[in-house]
Amino acid sequence: MIRVLYAGSPESSKTTLELLLQKESEYNFKIVGILTNPPSAKGRHKTPVPTDVAQCAAKKGIPVFAPEHLNAEARNAVASVHPDILVCFAYGHIFGPKFMSLFTFGGINLHPSALPKYRGCTPVNAAILNGDTETAYTIQKISEKMDEGNILEQEKITLSGRETAFSLLHDAAIRGASLICTALSKINKNGFIEEGIPQSGTASYTGMISKQDAFIDWSKSGTQIDREVRAYFQDPISWTLLNGETLKILDGMPAENGSSTLPQELLDGSADTIAPGTVCAFSKKDGIFVKCGEGFYIIKKLQRQGKAQMDSSAFMNGMHNFIGTKLG
Q1: For residue 281, what are the β-bridge partners?
Q2: Whether 298 contacts 289, CB under 8 Å
C-alpha cells in the first residue's frame, strides 16, 4: 500500500482530497499526512483560519503540517509519517530536492491545463480570459522547475464558453481525483513511477491575479468583459464604480450590436455614440445593458458595496434613474 502525503490548500484541493479518501481501499493507497499553507487571518477580527484542506483533514484525524517554510524542521515532521509519494494539487510552493528526497516514488502534481500551456498559478483563469475552446487536466511528475515535469496522465476538456473559474476548478478537482487514482494504480502495479512523456510545444506562464486586474475597463468589447467576469469569479470578482462606490459584477453575458437580445431602443445604431460604461437599458428577461467599446454587456447579478448579492431586477427596483448612469 502506497503511503501518500497530500499537499494542497484551497476549496478545490479539498474536493480532490475528499474524493481520494473515498478511493483509498479501491486503489490501495493511504493518505498519511497533509501538507498545507499556514492559517490566514480572515474576517473583521483577523482571526487565523486553517485552510479548507486542513479543516477537512482535521475532521478525518489525518496529521496536518502547515509550515511557513519547508525547512529542516518541516522535513523532519513530514518524515515522521513515512510517506512514499507526494501528491499535490494547488499547494502553491516549489519543492526543493531535500524535501523531495523524503519520498521513495517522488511526487505527482495535478495541474488544470494542457501543459506546457499555462504553467503557473492561474491556468484556469487564463484559459477563460483567452477564450480557449478546450483545455486539459494533467498529472505531471514534480520537477525542480515549476510545472516542467513529464506528463503521466492527461484528459482533454471541451469548453462551452460559459465556464467560470470556480466551475472549471471544481470540475478539475473531481476529474483530477480520478486521474490521480489512475497514476497511483500504475505505481502500485509497476512498483515504480513511470518516466512519463516530456512536455512539447511552446510554454506559457500565468501569474497572480490582483484586485486591480479585475477592475472592468468598459472600453473593451462585451465579449472580453464577459470572459473577465467569468475568469475572476469567485476571486477577486470583477468590479466597477458606481458614484465612487464599488459595484461587483457577478454574472452576465455579452450582446453584440444588432443582437436579437437588445431592446428596441438599442437596435437602430444610435447607441454607437454612447460612451462605454453607460447604462443604456434594462430588460426583466435579460438584465441591465451597459455600453462597451464594442457591443454591450448584460449584467444579470451584481452586488453594491456593503449590500447583499441580487439579480438585476431586484437591483433596478431600488435604483431609480439608473438608466444613463456611467459606470467606472
Answers
A1: 289
A2: yes
Q: Is the peptide bond before 97 cis (omega within 30 degrees of 0)?
A: no
| Pairwise CA distance, residues 164 & 144, whole Å | 31
Taking only the tens place, the pLDDT of each residue in 177-193 is: 999 999 999 999 999 99
Cell match 478537482: residue? 173
Beta bridge partners of 42: 47
Cis omega before residue 234 (within 30°)? Answer: yes
Sheet holding 64-65, edge to edge: 64-65, 29-35, 2-7, 85-88, 107-111, 134-141, 151-158
Q: How far is CA 233 from CA 162, 239, 252, 304, in A?
A: 12, 11, 12, 16
Distance, CA of 70 to CA of 92 (rounded, Å)? 12
Q: Give 188-230 pLDDT, tens digit per residue.
A: 999 999 999 999 999 999 999 999 999 999 999 999 999 999 9
Beta carbons within 8 Å of 11's beta carbon, 6+ residues apart = 52
CA distances in angstroms from 172 to 159, 260, 297, 316, listed in the order given:
12, 35, 28, 36
Give the helix ranges, DSSP H, for the chain. Answer: 11-22, 24-27, 52-60, 72-79, 97-100, 123-129, 165-190, 222-231, 312-317
Q: What is the pLDDT of residues 258-309, one digit of tens each?
A: 576 788 777 766 677 899 999 999 999 999 999 999 999 999 999 999 999 9
Does residue 105 contact residue 83 with C-beta atoms inside 8 Å?
Answer: no
Instruction: Name the residue with cell 478546450.
Output: 134
Burial of 55 (0-12, 13-18, 19+ CB in 10 A): middle
Q: Distance of CA 97 to CAs 70, 71, 110, 197, 202, Å?
A: 11, 12, 19, 21, 26
Answer yes or no: are the C-beta atoms of 231 and 258 closer than 8 Å.
no
Element (H, E) at 327: none
Alpha-carbon span 1 to 116, nearest angstrom: 32
- What's 237's DSSP letter? -
